[in-house]
Design a protein that fits this description.
Elements (H helix, E strand, L loop, with lengths): L1 E11 L2 E11 L39 E4 L13 E8 L4 E6 L5 E6 L2 E2 L8 H12 L3 E9 L5 E7 L2 E2 H7 L4 E2 L7 H13 L7 H4 L7 E7 L14 E6 L5 E2 L4 E3 L6 E3 L5 E2 L4 E5 L9 E3 L11 E7 L5 E8 L1
Parallel strand pairs: 2-3, 6-9, 18-19
Antiparallel strand pairs: 1-2, 4-5, 4-8, 5-6, 7-11, 8-9, 9-10, 12-13, 13-18, 14-17, 15-16, 15-20, 20-21
Length: 323
């Protein structure tokens, strides 16, 4: 087994960030029954630069270069990964493939991450980032399972670059708390993206009015007893920490999976220094209590992220808890 250091310049918000990672090359891989392991041939790692076809630019005059520590190297490509060719990119976390060992078509969703939809802030750009990484490329996929839509959920590598983490690293997706065997690596990638204010975390792109001081102050995820039997034991508290009344019409709350979304009532006003509690279950709305009435538990007990989003789809605040 040989290892080579590959330098990959990536244009992120007008800054070329040089990602250093170790690329492994194997002389061969063991092959066995179709659907369980990749084919024997393994292409050498490529040092071709990743060029975003839709540059993530805020200040086009900023062409400075910087380096960050190797972060998207690992985990390394597992020996039981299955090889495929990417045919079509659906969005920032889903794509179609052809399996190399069977020539069958399939749809893959990157496990452990959630990219914004096309009509959301950064949605189209997230798709462009994924296209720049894997479109028409040969990839290695570690299959976890199929979801209710029949899609493969898995971890993906291209030339030993861990794609799931890379999408988070450039701010093209958020990490899901407990949906991947490599959740720690994904969470670390998100911290770096947030610290560097890349992509979704750039206030100039997806941030709301900085004068707004409406914040998430707490989430109670673990209701007494069974969550599905006590949905109102789950709640999220929103505080207006500013000096002006804020109209929350069109604002929303969502979890990191985006499967659960709450829309504030029309003309709902939050006065200064007041808070509103949004319960996951059903009930009668009042000035200080609102009800999601989702039908299912909303917040993951093991850990989750709450997003407060304004009427234009921009982030006002986020709140992380758990592992």
């Amino acid at each position: 087994m040989k290892r080579a250091v590959v330098v990959v310049p990536v244009l992120v918000l007008g800054v070329f960030v040089v990602l250093l990672f170790e690329a492994r090359t194997n002389s061969a891989r063991d092959s066995s029954a179709p659907g369980t392991t990749p084919p024997a041939n393994t292409a050498p790692a490529s040092s071709t630069p990743i060029a975003l076809d839709e540059p993530l630019v805020v200040d086009e005059s900023d062409t400075s270069e910087s380096q960050i520590e190797p972060v998207t190297t690992g985990p390394p490509t597992p020996i039981d990964a299955r090889r495929a060719t990417v045919r079509f990119i659906s969005d920032g976390d889903s794509f179609d493939i052809t399996w190399s060992d069977t020539s069958e078509r399939d749809e893959v969703r990157l496990i452990g991450i959630n990219a914004p939809e096309g009509d959301a802030c950064f949605g189209n750009r997230a798709r462009s980032v994924l296209r720049s990484l894997i479109e028409d490329q040969t990839v290695d996929i570690q299959v976890s399972y199929r979801d209710e839509f029949g899609r493969i959920l898995g971890d993906v590598w291209v030339d030993d670059l861990y794609v799931n983490a890379m999408m988070i690293e450039v701010g093209g997706a958020v990490a899901l708390t407990d949906a991947s065997d490599h959740a720690d690596a994904l969470a670390a990638a998100q911290i770096r993206a947030q610290d560097a204010t890349r992509g979704l975390w750039d206030p100039q792109l997806c941030g709301s009015d900085p004068e707004l001081r409406v914040v998430i102050v707490d989430i109670n995820a673990d209701a007494d007893g069974r969550d599905d039997e006590n949905p109102n034991g789950e709640w999220i508290d929103i505080l207006n920490d500013g000096e002006d009344v804020v109209d929350l019409s069109g604002w929303s709350i969502r979890d990191e999976s985006t499967r659960h979304r709450f829309l504030f009532p029309t003309s709902f006003l939050l006065a200064p220094n007041e808070r509103v509690r949004v319960f996951s279950g059903c009930g009668d709305d009042s000035t200080f209590d609102l009800y999601w009435c989702d039908g299912n538990p909303v917040w993951n007990n093991a850990g989750d992220t709450g997003f407060l989003v304004d009427a234009e789809g921009l982030f006002v605040d986020t709140f992380d808890y758990g592992s």
